[in-house]
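Thread: Modeling a multi-component assembly for a lab meeting

Hi all, long-time lurker, first post. My supervisor asked me to bring a structural picture of a complex we are working on to next week's group meeting, and I have zero experience with this. I have the sequence lines for every component (422 residues in total). Could someone generate the structure of the whole assembly? Inputs are pasted exactly as I received them:
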Amino acid sequence: MKPILRKHVWKHLKILQGIERHKYHPIIHKLRTKFGISKKTLFYVKEYGSHSNVPKTIIRESIKVLLFASLLSSLGGLALEHIKVLFVSILPLVILFPALNDMIGDYGIIISSRFSTLLHTGEIKRKWHHNLTLGKLFTQIFIVSILTTILSSVLALALSSFSSDYHLTLAIGIKVFLISIIDVVILVNGLFFISIIAGLHYFKKKEDPNNFLIPITTSVVDFGNLLILSLLVRLFFF
Amino acid sequence: MGVFSKLFDRQFREIFFSQLVSIMGGLIAGTILAASTDKLLLLPGMFILLPGFLELRGNISGSMAARLTSGLFLGVINPKHKRSKVVKGNTLASFILVSIISLVLGLLAFAFSYLAFGIFVPKIILIAVFAGILANILEIPITLFLTFYFFKKGHDPNNIMGPFVTSTGDITSIISLLVVMFLI
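Re: Modeling a multi-component assembly
Sure thing. I ran the full set together rather than chain by chain. Output:
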C-alpha cells in the first residue's frame, strides 16, 4: 500500500494506526472526504495496521462470543447426552447430525446478514410484515431449507442402508425424515423471528445489527437444534 | 419477469449450491462419526463436547477467511506475500483461540458430565485440547491456501469459504477426535 500513496496521506494513516480502537477521531472523516479512501479501508488500517497487535485485537474481539457459543453448545449437547444410547442406535440420524447442524448455522448467517443489509439500506421500515423483499427472502430460505433437508435425509438413509450391522426399516426412514423436516421448519421460522426482533431492536438503538445478529442467531439456533432434535427423538422413538 | 423467475433468481441458486457443498461435507463427517460410534460416542461426555467442537472450526476458520478476504480486497494484504504481518497474526490468533476454547469445551463437558450424570471423566479435557490443536493444524493451511487461491482466480472467497470451511472443519474435527482418542 505504501508506494501507491502520497507521502502526506501515508503520514495521516500512520496517525490513524496509533489511535485507540474505541475512539472516533476526526482524521477518519478527514481522510475519507479529502482523499476518497473508503471507510472499510480506514477501519482495516486502524485495526490491523503496523502499530497494532493483530492477534491481540482478534482474540479480544472474538473471545466473548466464542465463549458464549461454547456454553450454549455444551448445554445443547447435554440434552443430547441424555438420549445418547437411543440416538446412537438410529444410524441415519447420526450420519445426518453434522449436516443438519451446519445447515441451520448457515441459514442463521444468511438470514442475519441479509436482514441487517435490508435495515441499513432502508428497505425495512416499521411495517416489516408487508415488506416484499423480506417476504421473498423468507420464501427462498424456506424452499432451500426444505429441498436440502429432503436431499440430506435421503442421502443419510441411503448411506445407512449400506451398513451390514444396521437394519433400516420403512418406519425408521419415515421417522428420521419427519424429525429432520420438523426440526428445520421450526428453526427457520425461529431464525426469522429472532433476526427481526433483535435486528429492529439494535437498529433502533443506533447499533450495527451485523455485529450482534450473527452470533446471537447462530448460538441460539445451534442450542435450539440440539434441544428440538432430542425432544423429537424421544417423541418418535420412545 | 414472472414470480417463478423472481423467486428462483441468482441469489436463490447461490444459497442452494453453497448448501449442497455444506451438506456433502456434513454427510461425509456424519458417516465417519457413524462408523466410529463404538469408540467416539460411547465415551461419557462426548455428546456434550461434540456440538461445540464441530462449531468451533467454522467459527474460527470462517472468521479468519472473512478477515483475510477483506484485507485482500482492500489491498492491505498482498496475495503474493502470504507471510505478511496480518496473515501471521491471524494464524497465531486462531491457534491461541482454539487452545482456549477447546480447553473451555473440555472443562464444560467434564463439569456437566460430573454434575448431571455423576461420571468423572477428566480424560475428556485432554481429548478436547489435543484434538482442537490437531484439527487446527489441518484446517488453517487449507483455509489460508484456498482463500488466496480463490482470490487469485478472481472469485470472492466470502461466497465460497463459509460452507467450505464448515464442511472441511467437520471432517478434520472428527478425524482429530478419533486420532487423539486412539493415542490417549
